[in-house]
Task: inverse folding
């Protein structure tokens, strides 16, 4: 096995390779989940794109010998599926989607305390341990540098209400995308959550925006010059920056959120010990180093540095984002969002 996979499972502490985790022709050292007679298999429901989940699943398989069967869909669709299957769960783990979406559906989740919870940053594990953060994802404004100079790019959520941006903004559908739901709630917190002002701003932004089915369409379209601006999370934008794309990133002047995407065990999972091993693996030091260096995502561990080139957290204005409100008001927020989109 490559050094990354071995070290993530307690072997050699060599730094991870810059290649995706893979076998190296050596005999695999498989780690059996303790106290388990489960078949070495797991079904993972994931909203992560293939370029994210494929190398991670491959590393997990090689380190543990547990075969991963992925089921890919948007976060909202996956939770709908889990609710329909609640009496006979077909998945073991839900991997991806903003933590507040997990929080809103925690009746479908089985609490678990990660082995190295003391190494995880505050706020990246649910209060009741129903979900565990995977990476931190501030909401940002991404823009195409071939279409806009840094001076011309919007600096705030308020700027995006200007009619000059009509048809030039990309944003995913909050009813389908976990990151889009986080974006909507972030705007509400930034512009006025309880006095209606946030919704007025959201309506004006939505009127200027192309509402897309997938959270990956906006960043790709902005990189390709199809859109001038995209509302997205930091990782989705930064991967194009890291690849040398014509992309700039703005952290909104009003402030932004820093909600992690999450991983959790599905209540009633048929392979609960394998699911626990999956969570521990994904938040291990070596895997968090890999996702920071190779996947350009902010780690949730306090002992792992963020990707080189990302804005230092000390320079980002973060909002007092109410995770409980975001979870408890999810249905009401989405109803109002749907009304806006239909209009």
Result:
């Amino acid at each position: 096995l490559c050094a990354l996979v071995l070290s993530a499972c307690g072997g050699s502490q060599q730094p991870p390779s810059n290649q995706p985790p893979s076998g190296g022709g050596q005999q695999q050292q498989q780690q059996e989940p303790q106290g388990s007679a489960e078949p070495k298999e797991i079904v993972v429901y994931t909203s992560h794109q293939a370029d994210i989940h494929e190398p991670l699943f491959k590393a997990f398989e090689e380190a543990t010998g547990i075969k991963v069967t992925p089921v890919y869909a948007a976060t909202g669709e996956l939770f709908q599926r889990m609710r329909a299957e609640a009496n006979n769960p077909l998945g073991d783990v839900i991997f991806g989607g903003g933590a507040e979406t997990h929080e809103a559906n925690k009746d479908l989740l089985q609490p678990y305390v990660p082995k190295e919870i003391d190494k995880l940053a505050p706020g990246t594990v649910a209060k009741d341990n129903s979900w565990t953060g995977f990476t931190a994802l501030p909401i940002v404004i991404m823009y195409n540098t071939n279409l806009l100079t840094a001076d011309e790019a919007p600096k705030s959520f308020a700027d995006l209400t200007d009619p000059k941006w009509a048809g030039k903004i990309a944003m995913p559908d909050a009813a389908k995308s976990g990151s889009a739901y986080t974006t909507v709630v972030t705007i509400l917190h930034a512009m006025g959550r309880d006095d209606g002002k946030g919704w007025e701003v959201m309506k004006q932004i939505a009127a200027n925006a192309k509402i897309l089915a997938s959270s990956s369409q906006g960043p790709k379209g902005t990189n390709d010059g199809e859109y001038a601006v995209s509302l997205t999370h930091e990782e989705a934008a930064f991967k194009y920056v890291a690849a040398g794309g014509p992309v700039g990133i703005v952290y909104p002047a009003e402030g932004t959120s820093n909600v992690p995407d999450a991983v959790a065990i599905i209540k009633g999972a048929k392979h609960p010990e394998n699911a626990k091993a999956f969570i521990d693996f994904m938040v291990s030091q070596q895997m968090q180093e890999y996702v920071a260096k190779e996947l350009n995502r902010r780690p949730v561990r306090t002992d792992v540095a963020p990707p080189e080139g990302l804005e230092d957290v000390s320079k980002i204005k973060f909002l007092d984002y109410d995770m409980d409100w975001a979870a408890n008001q999810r249905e009401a927020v989405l109803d109002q969002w749907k009304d806006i989109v239909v209009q």
User: Anything to note?
Assistant: Residues 98 and 182 are 7 Å apart (CA to CA). The longest strand covers residues 132-144.
